From TrEMBL:
This is Polysaccharide lyase family 1 protein. Keywords: Carbohydrate metabolism, Lyase, Polysaccharide degradation, Secreted, Signal. GO terms for molecular function: lyase activity. Residues 128-375 form the Pectate lyase domain. Belongs to the polysaccharide lyase 1 family. It holds the Pfam family Pectate_lyase_4. SMART domains: Amb_all.
Length: 456
């Protein structure tokens, strides 16, 4: 919190000194070449800002500096998917290996479905010629196909369609990169993929609707089967030292609540907001807003004991989870520090907040939970084959009652078996500034979290 206030004070003072004037950055390699690609002093300062020392797991090891060392030729302003790919290195298929320090400012709306000519494509444009949803629903109806996984030419055509979409809407980010949204910037219909890309910073962006055009039917997922999607808004895999800060994550104008039902189950086209998987580690997510989403944050994607052991270390602080349903986060293996976050949770579709998974070590301190009348403190934890969680100083406001301190673990254990242990086996040391008392968290988080709150 102290570092955020200091940043706001310094940037705000600079903006006052220059009277809000936008200045041309000498040597800025604008991807558009337009005269109005100007950056204020505040934007320039934020583009060069590094993660403060001690600010969560992303401060471990070498720390997180992103593209702060970029030369003027590697500072870009982008307005389209084509320009974003060009700024990241020029070839989406190989950009994940481009380790040149770079700062990328996003201006306006960038849509992942935009082709090279600026035309917005549809799901039909990405579908394999042998695929159609109508044919898929007819072929794999459990009433005739049975409760076995789809197979054969039509399922193969769906897989090829997913590959087409991956090439189009999955935007690959390389190491030593900072991506900053200018005022009102939105990334829509795309996945920002940070895979084998150490030292990345993503700030001040509105992420919306990373929809999957071709969800997979999984008949044995749960008692009734489920539709599963592939594309997250931001995915961090096989990477270290990643800072995700002051962003907003939503489904845009395509909420899950308005999607159809097929095979008796919601036709889910969205996956995670910010997932950390496949041995990734040293991630800090701070001052973000996760709004009206079902699956929010998966930390670790498999129960298999192997490469993830000792990895998946993540810090979450001063984030807002508003109207979200599950995975806030769900954790496997990692040491995950969750403090000073604000949860506003309600609705019949709510599942749980903190998922205690295999060999996970969650430390949850001074968080504030505002709960609808149909949710109790006992509903906030969920045992995904984990054994322990440390909880300290958390407060709950249930319905119209007054907020009060609640032992989340005691509330859970009183209604569920087997009990979870109260000691996750570690104590966080990487925190930039004092931990706020839980009653102050709503005011601070509501004021500062999300895109558009940084002074630009």
């Amino acid at each position: 919190m102290r570092s955020s206030r200091l940043t706001a004070t310094v940037v705000g003072s600079l903006l006052v000194l220059v009277s809000g004037a936008a200045l041309v950055v000498p040597g800025t390699a604008s991807a558009t070449g337009r005269d109005d690609d100007r950056l204020s002093w505040g934007a320039r300062l934020l583009g060069r800002q590094v993660l403060p020392a001690g600010d969560g797991w992303a401060a471990a090891g070498p720390g997180t500096t992103g593209g702060s060392a970029a030369t003027p030729e590697q500072v870009h302003v982008v307005r389209s998917r084509t320009e974003l790919v060009a700024a990241l290195g020029g070839d989406n298929a190989t950009n994940r290996a481009n380790a040149t320090p770079k700062i990328i400012y996003v201006k306006g709306l960038v849509d992942g479905y935009e082709d090279a000519d600026g035309r917005l494509m549809s799901c039909a444009d990405l579908a394999d010629p042998e695929y159609s949803l109508d044919a898929y629903l007819t072929a794999y109806d459990p009433a005739t196909w049975g409760r076995v996984a789809p197979s054969g030419p039509l399922e193969q055509a769906r897989v090829r369609s997913v590959a087409n979409q991956t090439r189009q809407t999955q935007i690959n980010v390389g190491p030593n990169t900072t991506i900053v949204g200018l005022r009102g910037a939105t990334l829509r219909g795309l996945t920002l993929m940070v895979d084998t890309a150490n030292n990345v910073i993503v700030r001040n962006l509105h992420f919306a609707d990373a929809r999957d055009c071709f969800p997979a039917w999984s008949p044995t997922d749960g008692d009734a089967g489920n539709w599963n999607s592939q594309f997250d808004l931001v995915s961090v895999r096989r990477s270290e030292n990643v800072w995700v800060d002051h962003n907003t994550f939503t489904d845009g104008d395509n909420p899950d609540s308005e999607l159809p039902v097929h095979f008796g189950r919601p036709y889910m086209v969205h996956d995670g907001s910010l997932d950390v998987t496949h041995t990734a580690s040293r991630v800090t997510a701070s001052y973000n807003r996760f709004v009206a989403r079902d699956k929010v944050m998966l930390i670790g994607s498999s129960n298999t004991v192997g490469p993830d052991v000792g990895r998946l270390n993540v810090t979450l602080h001063h984030n807002l989870f508003e109207g979200t349903m599950q995975r806030l986060p769900r954790v496997r293996f990692g040491q995950v520090d969750i403090y000073n976050n604000h949860y506003q949770l309600s609705g019949t579709g709510f599942g749980y907040a903190l998922g205690v998974g295999v060999q996970s070590a969650i430390y949850a301190e001074n968080n504030y939970f505002a709960l609808g009348s149909d949710i109790t403190a006992a509903d906030l934890l969920y045992d995904w084959d984990g054994t322990a969680i440390t909880v300290r100083g958390n407060w709950v406001r249930a319905g119209r009652s007054l907020p009060r301190p609640v032992d989340l673990l005691a509330a859970y254990n009183a209604e569920h078996d087997p009990d979870l242990s109260p000691d996750a086996g570690w104590t966080p040391t990487l925190r930039a500034g004092p931990v706020l008392p839980a009653p102050l968290v709503p005011l601070v988080v509501q004021t500062l979290a999300g895109a558009g709150r940084l002074p630009l």
